[in-house]
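Title: Prediction job returns without error message
Component: structure pipeline
Severity: low
Priority: P3
Assignee: unassigned

Description:
Job completed but the reporter wants confirmation the result is attached to the right record. Sequence as submitted:
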Amino acid sequence: MLFSKKGILLPLIACLLALVQCESNPYREGERLYKMNCANCHLDDGAGLGALIPPLAGADYLAAHRERLPCILKYGLKDTIVVNGTVYAEAMPGVQTLSAIQIANILNYINTNWGNNLPPYRLDEVRALLEDCE
């Protein structure tokens, strides 16, 4: 019987299934924000665009410049950078309307996809890094 006498078995199963679904993609909001703000240039799979736009997939730059990434997302990048041994000189526009929580969500999505296995950002960490943007 799927119902207990108090009728809580089905709701309990539904809640457990919802938890499993959330755990399979804990950065769903980051994925949504990435697709809205980043995928046009970096592509859905994080591959980048040849010699113009650096990849995010398997990018050594992510770990080496962790403290700069929140500022880059919010304010953009005009510097020449090296990603996986390739030099990139195209300017990247920032998205100044992104909040700290949105930036954390995007970075956590990037850091856990396409072969990236980097530690998550905490909201307080992102806020502190944003305060130090040049």
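Comment from assignee: result matches the submitted record. Helices lie at 9-24, 28-37, 39-42, 60-64, 69-75, 100-111, 123-131.
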